[in-house]
Specification:
48% helix, five-stranded mixed sheet, globular, alpha/beta, 209 residues
């Protein structure tokens, strides 16, 4: 099954383009993003939104030269040497890794956290971001995960979907416009499912109504 999913991910995908309205309020934007993320689509939606938030952040501070890479979510971990679902490099030669982010759109476990800590060590990162889109499987699982984080020699920072939305408050309108554009671009780049791309197009274009 994993090999089949990997092969499907390599197939040619339709590129979706859309009209990005020039002026949208923060609250309107957050409403459509929340609605967009109510469906998982194998986690690619949350991964693209996470990458879009980070792209807006780097854009806002004048670092448009960084290269943000999002692997197709159907590619099994063992088929990739990626440091995370989203990687940020100093440039597109991919030589200097600045940040890595694991994106989990299903309830997370302590094992997920431990895997991320191990990945961060392997890639010599002293900080690692973990987006828990659906929280943890249980309160006990969260407590065990927090203990693992406290014992780790790296700093692992837990983020929720709400944390992602809130960060857009600081990017101003230009940054939020960049976010709307880049999510669509990341969905195209990662060969996301057509439904994920079409839904983003419809969500953004609805803001112009």
């Amino acid at each position: 099954l994993r090999q089949a999913l990997y092969e499907i991910s390599q197939l040619e995908s339709t590129t979706v383009s859309y009209t990005n309205p020039p002026d949208v309020s923060y609250l309107e934007l957050v409403d459509v993003v929340r609605e967009y993320l109510t469906e998982s689509n194998t986690g690619e939606r949350l991964a693209a939104v996470t990458a879009g938030v980070l792209d807006a952040q780097y854009f806002f501070v004048g670092r448009e030269d960084v290269y943000i890479k999002v692997d197709h979510v159907n590619v099994a971990d063992e088929n990739s040497n990626a440091a995370g679902d989203v990687e940020i490099f100093d440039s597109n030669d991919e030589e200097t890794l600045l940040q890595a982010i694991e994106v989990k759109d299903k309830p997370a476990t302590k094992a997920d956290i431990q895997h991320s800590i191990t990945t961060a060590r392997e890639h010599e990162l002293d900080e690692y971001l973990f987006v828990a889109g659906q929280g943890f499987r249980s309160d006990d699982e969260r407590n065990r995960a927090v203990e693992a984080i406290a014992d780790a020699e790296i700093e692992l920072i837990l983020l929720t979907a709400d944390d992602l939305y809130s960060s857009l408050k600081f990017q101003r309108r230009a940054g939020r416009r960049r976010f709307r554009e880049s999510v669509g671009e990341f969905l195209n780049d990662m060969r996301a499912q057509e439904d994920s791309k079409d839904s983003w197009k419809n969500a953004i274009e609805s803001l112009a109504d």
